[in-house]
Amino acid sequence: MGPPRIAPSLLACDFARLGDEIARVEAGGADWLHVDVMDGHFVPNLTIGPPVVAAIHKVATLPLDVHLMISDPWRYADAFLDAGADVLTVHLEVIERGDGHGLLQKIRARGARAGLALNPDAAIERVAPYLPALDLVLVMSVFAGFGGQKFMPEVLGKVRWLRQRPEFRGDIEMDGGIGLTTVAACAEAGTDVFVAGTAVFGAPDVPARIAELRRIAAEARRGGPAHPPR
Ligand code: DX5
Ligand code: ZN
Is any ligand 1 atom within 6 A of the Cβ of residue 67? Predict the structure, then answer.
C-alpha cells in the first residue's frame, strides 16, 4: 500500500500558466501529476492532447498520471506514451468494446503502467477479467467529464472489493470531489492515490493543502481520528 499519494489534477489549474502551476504543486509536495484527457465524445468536455502532455513532460519531474477519457484509446495510446505518460489509464466502458487485453498489454510492453478507470455506474466486477494485467484501478467518484463535482460515497465499496482481490497487486486511485471532507473515507476504504483538482488548486495555500490531505488520509488509514477540516 505505501504512504498515501496525492495527485493534483491539472484540469483545475490556470492553463495560461501551466509551467508555473506544475512547479507550484511539485514544490508543494505532490506525488504524481494527474492529467485529464477528454475527447468531446466519450465525455462531453474537451481538454488537451499529446502535444500538451509532451510539453508538461518537458518541465515536470513527477510521474505523469494520464487519465484518458476518450473513445478510441487504441488509436492514441502510442501518442500519449511517446508524450511521456508514466501511468496510462483507459476507461473500462471503452475497452470492453474492443481488444482491451491487447491495449493493456501494449501499455505495459512500452514500459508504462497500465490503468483502468470506471465510472460510478459501472459494476466493479466488470474489472475482474483485467485485474492481472493492471498496475492501477481508478475508481471514479464522480462521472468523468468535469472538475468540481460532488463526491459520490456510494463508490467506496468498489475500493474495498479491490482490496480483497489477491490477483490485483496494483494501486487503487480515486478521482472526483476529493477534498478535506471526503479524503478520510477514501483512505479508510483502502485508496492509495488521491486525485484532487479543485481542492488543491483552489486552496489559499497549496503546499499546506497537499500536506493536510496526506495527513488526513494517513490517519484515516491507521484507523486514527480523521480530523475534520477547521
Ligand atoms: C473528472 C476528472 C477529474 C477532475 C477532478 O472527469 O477525471 O480528474 O479533474 O477534479 P475535482 O478534484 O475538482 O473533482
Ligand atoms: Zn481524472
Answer: yes
The one catalytic residue in 31, 36, 65, 135 is: 36
Residues, the chain, total? 230
CA 209/CA 153 separation, integer angstroms: 21
Return the closest-CA partner of residue 211 out of 12, 11, 31: 31
Q: Which residue has the cell 502551476?
A: 21
Average pLDDT, the chain: 96
C-alpha cell at 146: 468535469
With a pLDDT cut of 70, the percent of the chain lying above it is 97
d(CA 160, CA 171): 13
Q: What is the pLDDT of residue 230?
A: 45
Q: Is 176 in the pocket of ligand 1 (CB under 6 A)?
A: yes
Contact of 31 with 62, CB cutoff 8 Å: yes
Distance of CA 182 to the CA centre of its chain: 15
Q: Are strands 64-69 and 87-91 parallel, antiparallel or unpaired?
A: parallel
The Cα 83–Cα 77 span in angstroms is 10
Distant-in-sequence, close-in-space partners of 100: CB < 8 Å, separation ≥ 6: 90, 130
Q: Kindly report the CATH number that applies to the domain delimited by 5-222.
A: 3.20.20.70
Here the cell at position 167 is 490477483
Cα separation values, 136 from 9, 204, 222, Å: 17, 31, 22
User: Known catalytic residue: 36?
Assistant: yes
